[in-house]
Amino acid sequence: MKRNRAMLLAFTLPGTILFLGMFVYPLIRTVFMSFFSIMEITDPVSRWHFNGLGNYRSLFSASLFRQSIWNLLKIWTLGGLITLTISLLLAVILSSGIRGKSFFQAAIYLPNVISAVAMATMWIQYVFNPSYGFLTHFFRAVGLKQLAELQWLDGEHKFWALLLSYCFGMIGHHMLIWISGIERIGREYYEAACIDGAGRREQFFHITLPLLRGILKTNIVMWSISISGFFVWSQLFSPLTPDTSTVVPMVYLYVKLFGAESVDAISRDAGSGAAIGIILSLFVLFVFQLTNRLLKDDDLEY
To answer: What mean pLDDT is reported for the chain?
Structure first.
């Protein structure tokens, strides 16, 4: 028995130490940092000055940070509806027994394999470009001159261009999660529904959707986590300074930590940067708790 305990300790101790050092300690340190005024993230604790909730108050009093929160919520709601709806539709189609399922799955998932920098650059240079972009040529070819002259990358439309391109890249990821749930549903449910005269529409709303409640929770949480870390796409669509139409909290966090030539940004404010990280973590935790309360699947079984 003692030998077994020693073996268990020998195998679990390295992973435990790594987990404590890489995850638990940085989390605790970030929480403490959010209540202190700190200039550099590498400053020793002796140079920290207690600030209480001052970092949080200064953040929510800054117009650019409030705009970044609003942009994040728009991406989460509008982008979530677009991405999860289209990905569910594609998952249902691919799970219906069509030919070439593996090919279509790989093709739709392909944008997730390409780096975010390459994807965003492709959209900016070859899709939204007003001179030779795909949308410009497409709308001209079909005779929609007004849409062909639309400036997708100006201040008025840049957010929608960012949202469209990001959702396009995320559909394949969530589609595979939907497919994993659909394939777990027993075929006997659909066979019984067919015997009772239920069509495809009735089967989808009364069998597929209710039994995908747990997968829906997973998709919502995964979408929330990816959105809370939204950074690269925003930076590439506004590379020089934080644009109010595309700025998100992670960009504002970057500005706080490393500084920027912006009136609204305080150079080298690691305490406020830590506070932003805590706010984003609380946002994901809130979404997780809310989905668990609203989407209960205890009364469902496969």
So the answer is: 86
